[in-house]
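Give me structure tokens for this 111-residue protein.
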Amino acid sequence: QVHLVESGGGLVQPGGSLRLSCAASGSIFSINTVHWYRQALGKQREWVASSPSGGITIYADAVKGRFAVSRDSAKNTVYLQMNSLKPEDTAVYYCRYQTFWGQGTQVTVSS
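Here you go.
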């Protein structure tokens, strides 16, 4: 069983930045791919990024150049750095590892 916990969400003005964290139980991130998704109110969940360990992270076109995934294997944590945030980035953000999902963290971009 894997337990994922996201954190770092909040309210930020347009153009601002946030860093989300996805902490996992067990040493799994160092050898496996972690994914980020988001779901805006009333919309379907959409894929944001996929980060393979030791590989190249790929991003959705909507966030490419603004978001970046990193990982700290010692802390078994994956981060999603979000810069130049836009109101349309407002959503609940989730991380996923295989079939396991975190509970999500709310990001609101508003002035």
